[in-house]
Design goal:
By secondary structure, the protein is α/β, with parallel strands linked by helices. The protein has 13 helices and twelve strands. It comes from Kerstersia gyiorum.
Length: about 300
């Protein structure tokens, strides 16, 4: 039950937030960035730049922040330029996880002008979107940190972007919930309804998954929570509970299971939820509807 002791340690969240997120391997990044470039280039390439810019023209550009936030996605942006043309030089001025101020130079880039412009939108799409996720995560992580609570993302990710979006959450000081359906057992209301009972669902899951696979159960009421605790589940997902009910649920589960709150959590509500003593807060909006950070590419 090591995960319980870690999650319930008041300073665990702050210590984990201080640990830098390791970069994603190129092997994971390259197929996604290559596909994004191919999508943008279509069947003929950049017909605008090819028509009006001579092939031997060189250019110098700078990636700059236009608002405050947390940087994420620099490797994806760099790879977009490198895959477009190996002669492009990408010189980062800062690293993922850096807190940006308006006007900060993120990277200097120079090389063939046509290739630079061909990769521009793909690079900015990755950088702006992932920095938006990291920035939103950091704001909420800062809000809940005094309570020893951690912020989780969910599987509500944009198709094809899961590894990158979950990486950006880590950069912002958050944690990742399941990457996919094979990571851990999460028994939800529809599973219980189809199985016929919570007990049947838990017993079947344990028999199938094995002792090394984590088991979490979603509960909507205190009665369901008591049943789940009696079945000795490791984690309980407290879904759509008001703060008074959450506080009672946390008290019931203390010392018996790790607690995670979910359901319509926002930046505005995160602090009051964390104040109930819950170990984790799951927020789908971090990945499915976050606002992109404003980052631009300027000519030098």
């Amino acid at each position: 039950m090591e995960s319980k002791s870690i999650a319930s340690t008041p300073n665990a969240a702050a210590a984990a937030d201080a640990w830098p997120a390791p970069p994603l391997p190129r092997l994971i990044l390259e197929p996604q960035v290559r596909a994004a470039l191919l999508e943008d280039l279509g069947r003929r390439g950049d017909i605008t730049s090819d028509a009006i810019i001579p092939a031997d023209t060189e250019a110098r550009l700078a990636l700059r922040a236009r608002e405050s936030g947390v940087l994420a996605g620099l490797d994806a942006a760099r790879l977009a330029f490198e895959l477009m043309d190996g002669r492009i030089h990408f010189e980062p001025a800062m690293a993922d996880g850096t807190h940006l101020a308006p006007g900060d130079t993120i990277a200097l880039i120079h090389g063939p002008a046509r290739a630079l412009l061909g990769a521009e939108r793909t690079a900015l799409n990755y950088l702006s979107h992932l920095s938006g996720i990291a920035s939103a995560t950091a704001r909420i992580a800062d809000t809940v940190r005094p309570y020893g609570t951690r912020v989780n993302c969910t599987r509500k990710t944009l198709p094809g972007l899961r590894s990158l979006q979950k990486y950006a959450v880590r950069v912002g000081g958050g944690s990742n919930h399941r990457y996919g359906l094979d990571d851990a057992v999460l028994i939800k209301d529809n599973h219980i309804a189809i199985c016929g009972s919570l007990q049947a669902a838990v017993e079947r899951a344990r028999a199938h998954a094995g002792h090394l696979t984590a088991l979490e159960v979603e509960v909507d009421t205190l009665a369901q929570l008591r049943e789940a605790l009696d079945l000795d589940v490791a984690v309980v997902l407290l879904d759509n509970m008001d703060t008074d009910t959450l506080r009672q649920a946390v008290a019931l589960a203390r010392g018996r299971a790790v607690t995670e709150a979910s359901g319509g959590v926002s930046e505005a509500s995160a602090a009051s939820i964390a104040a109930t003593g819950v170990n984790y807060i799951a927020i789908g909006a971090l990945t499915h509807s976050v606002r992109a950070l404003d980052i631009g590419l300027d000519s030098l």
